Each structure stands twice: as structure tokens, then as C-alpha cells.
Prior knowledge:
By secondary structure, the chain is of the alpha+beta class. The chain is 23% helix and 37% strand. The chain contains eight helices and 22 strands. Helix 2 crosses helix 3, helix 2 runs parallel beside helix 4 and helix 3 crosses helix 4. The longest helix has 18 residues. The structure holds adenosine-5'-diphosphate (ADP) and magnesium ion. The site of magnesium ion (MG) has 2 residues, from helix 1.
Amino acid sequence: MAAVTIKNITKAFGDNVVLKSFNETFKDGEFITLLGPSGCGKTTMLRIIAGFEKPTSGELYIDDRLVSGGKTFVPPEKRSIGMVFQSYAVWPHMNVFDNVAYPLAIRKAPKAEIRASVEKVLGVVHLSQYADRFPNQLSGGQQQRVALARALVAAPKLLLLDEPLSNLDAKLRESMRFEIKEIQRELGITVVYVTHDQTEAMAMSDRIFLINRGVVQQSGTPQEIYNTPANQFVADFLGKVDFFKGEAKDGRIVFPGMGGQSIPYGGPRTGKVEVAIRPENIFFAEDGVLTGTLEAQYYLGDVDDCRVRVGDTLVRVITNGWEYKKLANGRPVTLGVRDIMVFEDDGLLEQMLSIQT
Ligand SMILES: Nc1ncnc2c1ncn2[C@@H]1O[C@H](COP(=O)(O)OP(=O)(O)O)[C@@H](O)[C@H]1O
Ligand SMILES: [Mg+2]
């Protein structure tokens, strides 16, 4: 296990500043995810932690040891880190055992020790019976587990994973999430995981760091950042959300785009506000607050994804099928609203309100 402390790290490639004043501590044994859109700086941060990249300024500590900063730079092989990349390249000419043994073999570890370590880690990734197979005799998920085993065989204190599942199909990706999480729990290892997939981040992480343009927008547990997003970017990136322009007055928020219909509002703001509502927080109700016309409904199995026209605005409603099953398109409907998020003009969250209409 290892803690990682990032002190004021900035990274620029020429004029392009890709990480700005990164200040975070990842605790011992945590599963941390760096989440954000492509190009936001996730891989760069991971490569700085690994030692493949030097920060332009700032300091990096693994536990109490300075590994990067000032005149100090500890090379990757001296950082006790395991790493798996998106293209998980396992060597095609080596069987599973030799692939996994490789990091120990190049260190010239004793044969008996290599065997014991490889067998142990193959057990962890459920590949014990495949030790003699070659990569072309394995599925994508199994090859990915070989890469994982290779990263774990030298018992690293810290495991860095850069979009390790993105080359796998959807079903395999989902099951591998749980496997990686299990392995992390079993070994009690600290993991820094990079992905642009919010569902993956939500499912696996103790804490998520959501990055945009090299700046951490918010960090917290999946629940924290989903339920109380710090700003509009966070609300938008995690989960589904619709934004509506409104005006707060007299205990209500009025929506000009909805023909002047309104919802109750107990907050302090008056005047223009931006309201965000997650479609699962809008529902069909006899005594709802917004009235519109059911325009479309998409059956998705577990839920139904509906569009209701309220004035000039198309409102998205994600609901359990039973609630509206008997309704026909074109029919007038009434909508209730559970939770809303009210944002300031600068995009920062002012308030999260449960209105339960
Ligand atoms: N070696 C490099 N030289 C120049 N620019 C780079 C280099 N590596 C990354 N970048 C730039 O840094 C930014 C962040 O890249 P990266 O960390 O790979 O993002 P992410 O992993 O979030 O997709 C991008 O604009 C990318 O073009
Ligand atoms: Mg990347």
C-alpha cells in the first residue's frame, strides 16, 4: 500500500499547459479514479506518478518519499509501481506464465521465488489453469488479466491503470470492473485508475477526481459528486441532466421556455437562474407541477426514456414502465419533480433542493 501526495504539480508541453496546480492526496488503499473527457490530462498525471514524465513544477511524494520535485527524480523502476495501459500488449511469443514472470525474470530473481509469485498472482486473476497457454489462445478479457497479473507480480505498492478496459466489449468491460475491484480489495493495494467512462468510475471508485482542461473540477465519493455537483460541468459529465433557464421570484422558479409554468423554490436567489434536473428525478404524476404533452417514449427494458413537450421545451423523463404504460403519444400529462439543482451565473452550484412536488 502507498499514499500519493501531489503538491502543486503543473505540466506544460511547450506553451500547452495540460495540468494546472494539481494538489491532491490519495490515501493508502484507496481506489482513486481520474475521470474526464479525452485530452483533459489524465494520462499525463498518471505518467507523472509513474515517473515516465517529469512535472514542469511541483512535487510528488509516494508515502513520505519525494520522488519528483526540485533536483530529485526517482526513475519508474525504483517507484514500486505496477502499471497497465489501454493497449495491454502481452507478448505473443510467450505463454501466460512467462508473460507474468517477465518483470521478475529481468531482475534475475531466483527461479523458485518467481514460480511462487507467478502462481500466486495467477490465482488472484483466476488464470491458474491457463499458465501454459499462449495469448492467441485466450479471450480479450483473459489477455487483459494477464497484463494485470504482470503488473501485480512484483507486489507493487501502487497500481496505475490507464483505461485498461476500453478495448473490451461492453459485457466483458462490466464484469472486469468487478474483478479489478475485487483484486484491489483482496490485495489492499492503492489504485489510481484512469477512464473517460463515468459509469466505470462510479462503479469502482472510492473517490473520483473529475478533471476538465487540466483542472480538477471536483473530487469526492461517487455519491457526493453525483448528488451535489460543484458546477455545471460536473453535473453534465456525470449521469444525465437537462438544463433549463428560469427566473426565481415569489417562492417559485418560472420557466419562460415552458410557457411560464413554474416549480416551487425555497432558495435565496431572485432573478435569472439555471436549473438542472436529472431525468430520473422527473416523473408522471396526477397532481404534478408541469403540464405538457407526451411526445415520444423509448422502451429500454429496465426503464423508459420519454420526451414531454412543456411549452417550447422538450423535457426528458426516465421512468419505470408501469408509471405510464397505458399512455399514448400525444396525450396530455402532468409531471412531478423530485430534486433540482440551481446554479449561479458562473456555473457554480448554489443549491441542491429536494422539492418533492
Ligand atoms: N508528449 C506530449 N507532447 C506534447 N503534448 C502532449 C504530450 N502528451 C500529452 N500531450 C497533450 O496533453 C494534453 C493531455 O493529454 P492526456 O494526458 O493524454 O489526456 P487524456 O489522457 O485525459 O486524454 C493533450 O492536449 C495532449 O495532446
Ligand atoms: Mg489518456
